[in-house]
Amino acid sequence: MAHASKDVETLNSFLRGEISAVETYRQALGHVSDDRLRGALEDCQHDHEHRVEELRERIRKLGGEPAEGSGVWGTFAKLVQAGADVLGEKTAIQALEEGEDHGLHDYQRDVDQVHGEARRFVKLELLPAQKRTHERLSRLKRTLH
Which residues form the DUF2383 domain (predicted)? Predict the structure, then answer.
């Protein structure tokens, strides 16, 4: 149980990143009219929403209180996305991909900060799911060229 507090802290950091991703996709979707593009972005948003729920549940199981908002990352993501919104869909996709890069990097960097079952959860569920979402968005970006 000694690691539980640190695990909750790290999982909450991941949770804030996932909440930020959901918020950023929601904002981007408000500026996308192409149905194919919308569908792909909605799929990515749903992936992040699923991870938000999984993280909240895991944090509660560890006796922690899940973060409610995205914190600093949400503010940063909103600024990046706001700039992208002005410049169009292609730039918005680029900004979303950068967010996916950041999320993937966070999981890879901090996976060893959690212990036992929490580490298995990150390695076997969250990290592979983030890689799939990242790849989905990268494929989408390549189709826009």
Answer: 8-109
